[in-house]
Design a protein that fits this description.
By secondary structure, the protein is of the alpha/beta class. The chain contains six helices and seven strands. Strands 3-2-1-4-5-6-7 form a seven-stranded parallel beta sheet, with helices on both faces. α1 packs across α6. The chain is globular.
Length: 218
């Protein structure tokens, strides 16, 4: 059974991704904010503050201590905050960078070191299509900066680690169709939003080798 590391697996998108991958027969290792009880048959939970580099290191090491070889890391942890430049403070930027970038960087840093000992592996990040639209991204200034940082991180990994058999992929969905987003934007056109199931199936395709693009828009 191949091992997949997942951050943000208990969130709105995460639940769909976890269900899809668990049904595909992977053993999933989830970082969670607090203890959620006993592990399911092929899902293991690790209480971890991913913004803390030492805890993120321990999370990866705890998986490796089970003699597991990690096939891929799927990075779903993150958060959103609106606000233009005038409304944004350095504290806002730090908050978004910690949620959307540090949680991914801290784990990916350790995973890359592991991949170099086992012949490679995959990294799958979830960015934002809106954050890459520079004409409009400024309305969510801190959020967009943090997602742009994640995008550049994925690109740099592919440039620097390709010879180690490491591939990085970043998904760029529009607004994701979740209960939380519908409640926050009840008057929006939900038909224009990205279905979480489409994201989950794309991740599944990356893991199986059916999808190899470094950047995937929805």
């Amino acid at each position: 059974m191949e091992n997949i590391l997942i951050t943000g697996g208990t969130g709105n998108l995460g639940k769909t991704v976890v269900e899809t991958l668990a049904e595909s027969g992977y053993h999933l290792h989830l970082a969670v904010r607090k203890d959620v009880g006993d592990s399911a048959e092929n899902v293991s939970f690790y209480p971890t503050d991913l913004a803390d580099s030492k805890q993120a290191d321990a999370f990866v090491q705890n998986i490796l201590d089970t003699n597991a070889k990690i096939k891929a890391g799927v990075f779903l942890a993150g958060g959103f905050q609106p606000g233009n430049l005038a409304e944004t403070s350095m504290d806002d930027i730090t908050k978004m960078v910690n949620l959307n970038f540090a949680t991914a960087f801290n784990v990916a840093h350790q995973l890359i070191a592991h991949y170099k000992t086992v012949g490679g592996g995959k990294l799958i990040f979830v960015g934002s299509k809106a954050a890459m639209d520079f004409k409009n991204a400024g309305s969510n200034f801190a959020y967009s900066l943090s997602k742009q940082l994640l995008y550049n991180f994925s690109d740099l990994i592919n440039q620097s680690e390709a010879n180690a058999g490491i591939t990085s992929h970043i998904l760029l969905p529009g607004t994701i169709d979740t209960v939380t987003n519908r409640e926050a934007m009840p008057n929006a056109d939900f038909s224009e939003w990205t279905d979480p199931a489409a994201i989950a199936l794309t991740i599944q395709d990356i893991l199986s080798g059916k999808e190899s693009n470094a950047e995937i828009q929805f």
